[in-house]
Predict the structure.
Amino acid sequence: MPFIEVDNLTKRYGEDVLALQHVTFTIERGEWVAAMGPSGSGKSTLLNILGCLDTPTDGSVMVGGEALSGFSAADGARFRAERVGFIFQQYHLVPYLTALENVMLAQYFHSLADEAEASEALRRVGLADRLAHLPSQLSGGEQQRVCIARALINQPDLILADEPTGNLDAVNEAIVLSLIADLHHEGRTVLLVTHDQEVARMADRRIELHHGRLTEADIFVHQDQDLFDQLLKAVWKARGGRAGIPTEALPEFAYNRATFNLLAERGWLRLDDGTVELTPRGEERAAFAVRRHRLAERLFYETFGIGEDLLHENALKIDPVLSSEVTQKICTYLHHPRTCPHGDPIPRGECCVKAGVM
Ligand code: ADP
Ligand code: MG
């Protein structure tokens, strides 16, 4: 079951404003999703509903097995305190409380305020020496880090961030993003609203809103996603029977260091001590990429009679856009072939298992 399931969500304000219209999507536990879209497209409304700061007009919203649509105000407050960490563009710190007190206030709504824990959270965001400062004595970046400490304190499994770097300079943006990346790395689910393509690039996936409707956003990230697939495939192929492979044994590594770091940050692979290893998720993605590519080669070979030397090149053009559904259709159409035209094995898919072709 997905961690977040939004089904046919509609939000109306008064008679004329339709902030969200029939929005449907899911987010898996541990996923980092970026929500994009022009101003007024309903991004904040969506986040507020997921965090129980607002209620749906219609449709259902499930988070971690709880149906938010049926919540009373008290249920909503409990849910927010226990499960959600909010990070806002405008910080929303209480101006007359110190950094430490702001964090402890969030704790208080959860259970009991614990000063040691609150100062540990502030230390974690690099503010150990600013505990007694008021928000007005902190820079924007520091205030945002207080917000992150506040969001962290109750160990929420869902982080909702609404343009968290919208008001920050480049350095603080990088700090805040790396803190969010850490939270993601720890297994928390992150939904982050941003206008910035670069920021969105750090997410596993994007969704896009236009006039309150969800639109396909995957199209314009294909270039990145292609490179990710290429690199994961390279690791998959190079490793043979080994678990981890030395990065020197991988020519791609030297040219794509930053992307390898990004892949590690997003949980597709592990980098340590000069070796690289696929995580189970990375393994699955790489196998699917190899499968797609080899099936595309076989399709070109059998259907269009394209020569072996041109197969790879032709397959590269279409394989990135093959969804898992289309891939299964091709596989079934080709009677679940075991190898590509060059004789390399095609990783099995769900459809092969169903058809009993192992
Ligand atoms: P975004 O975050 O994408 O900029 P919002 O979710 O804030 O967009 O707003 C979506 C639409 O809903 C806008 O037209 C906005 O004016 C409207 N809206 C948001 N909150 C309210 C509210 N409390 N009352 C009336 N209209 C609202
Ligand atoms: Mg907004």
